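Fold it.
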Amino acid sequence: MGRGRTLPEFLSPDEARDLLNTPWKTDLRSRLILGLMVKCGLRAGELVPSPRQRIKRDEDTGEIIEHKKWISKGIRRKDFEFDEIGQHARLKVVGGKGGKDRYVPVPLDLALLFKSYTKDMEIDQPIFDMTIWSISPLVRRFAERAGIEGKVWPHNLRHTFAVNALKSGWNLKELQEVLGHEHLSSTEKYLHLTDDDIATAHKRHPLSY
C-alpha cells in the first residue's frame, strides 16, 4: 500500500482489484460492500443504518462549539437510480457526514451487482442487515485473504477511490461533492501526495476496476 504525508494508507490498483475479486462470486453482499467503498468512495457509516454525531471544539479553549447528531439511513433499494438505456447509475447517500445527502456515480458492473443483490428486497429496506461494527472486520478479512500487507480499514478504501479519481483527471470540486466533504480543504489534502505515492495509483478511471 502507498502512504501519503497526510493520508492513511491506500491501495494500489493491483491491490484494489485483488481485494474486489477475493469474495466468492456468490457472495454478493461482500462484493457489493467492498465495491461501494472502493469504486464509489462511501464511508462505512453510510452503508448501514447508524446513529452519527459530530463534535467541534474551539481550537484555543477546547470547549465544544457544535454538537450535531443525526441518523445515517444506510443504503436502500429506493436510493438507487439506473438508466437502462444510457447504462448510467447513481446512488443517493442519505444522512452522510453532517447529516447531508449526496449522489455518487456507480459504475456499470457495480450497478448490475446492486440490482442482482437487491432484486427481492423491499424498496425502503436497508440492503445490508449488519451493524457498522461489522464492516471493518469484513474489510480486514478479505484484505488478508487477498494477501495485502498491513491492516486495511474501510477508510483506506475511501482514500483509494479519492487518490485514483484525482489521478484520473477529476477536479477537486467534483471529488468534494462525491466524497461529501463540507470544506474543499478536506479534499485538497490529496494534492499533497508525493509523486512516488501516486506513481502506482491508477492510470485508468477509478470506477473501472
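The chain is about 35% helix and 15% strand.
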